[in-house]
Amino acid sequence: MSTLVETSNGKIQGKLENGITVWKGVPYAKPPIQQLRFKPPEPPAPWNGVYDATQFAPGCPQPKNPFANILGERKELETDEDCLYLNIWSPVADTKGRPVMVFIHGGGFWFDAGSNPWYDGTSFAQQGDVVLVTINYRLGPLGFLHLADIGGEEYAYSGNCGLLDQVQALKWIQENIRHFGGDPERVTIFGESAGATSVSLLMAMPSAKGLFSQAILQSHAGDFFTNSKEATEVARKWLEILGIQENELWKLENVPVEKFLKVTDTLRVNAAKSAVFQPVIDGTLIPMEPLQALQSGASNHLSVLLGTNKDEDRLRAAVTPRWNSMSDQQIYESIEKTVGEIWLRVSGYYLNREKDGQSLRDSVESAIGDFRFWFPTIKMGEYLVEAGASVWMYRFDWPSPIFDGQLGCCHYMEIPFVFHHLNHQDALILTGVSPKREEISLQMHRAWIAFAHNGNPNHVLIPEWPNYEVKNRATMVFHEKSKIENDPCMGERLVWEDAWKVLES
User: Known catalytic residue: 220?
Assistant: First the structure.
């Protein structure tokens, strides 16, 4: 079984792992350093000889992940500005033309990398006859520092370099994946959290059209982007702390990246938003917000699978030490800061849950999770259906037993189920050991595989899964006994819809 492949840039050598072929650290763009800092990615230069693709490449420089202790990431992630690489798992490098799945990692546009063992593609290749690709992209200020309104045309796309990296990776895949046993006409992009937001933005970007035909969004975050005005204000504050004048942007080429991270930490402490660097709806590269783009029919040709976890906000709460010691007044202030004025229109519904035995913290966690992840996902499903796309909706409900059940079915919990590596030592830290885990994982894993092959997630291990339509809102609820529910959480949906209408009027 050969692992030597000819690409458009030169030959690369992978290796055999667990009976499949794997290529790690494959360059899809030039190193984005010095004069290429804050600039769109450029295709990689050709090389002579054989490129060694047997070891993962570094991820983008980043601060320490606040979720690392819970997510079991014991090994410090190697990072470097020279980070634009991808990884490929394939049953065999032949000409069969298998479906291709490209995973875009989350991490709030701040953390993580495609080399994270949570995203190992072995099972997709072994059990699904799929070519699985993971990618790195620029994060934090390196990926999303908006200098266009300060530095002009030279920095026109600086605020979306991380997204342009993703587009460049998809272009490389279109050009080369056939050599790895994949079919460039059958590419499914999928991502979790900020990765799912990336997917929604790629669906709205004209420059990404034609680079994929299907999409999966896991825990899409509806507020993980910003506008040019806000992004420029952040950039000005960042430059001020860094000590660089607005007419001296050329100096940014030689500032050590470690200094960038220190300045960014200072900025984050004093910022209204924890994620101060996010994709920018600039009106050109990204003409409009994802939901507006979907309404206009930007993705009506796609098949889309999307959903959320039942207790999205509990992971954030678990790593916030002061959360459990906050007074009721501090909790109210926290959710008003997070949700904004719309909280006044939904608070009555959520706070009334205390009568049913829910604590104030539980109610607030539910409201934040619904605001940030669940309701935006519902709206996205509606707009896609109205535009004519084929849509399937899911919700993941299985609660982890660890920490006495405090995490519930929190953000990120679905990852080891989807990738089918529940027995990895890191996954066990999040999920623990309990009955039914394997069965649920197989149901989800094979649904994702079936979707990659057929544009439809149905398979023999789950009940029949109808398309999502506004009339019945059929949703697959993955749990110990998975089932279809029509319009689950209808009460919450109606409350958010009423609040949204008032704000839009």
Answer: no
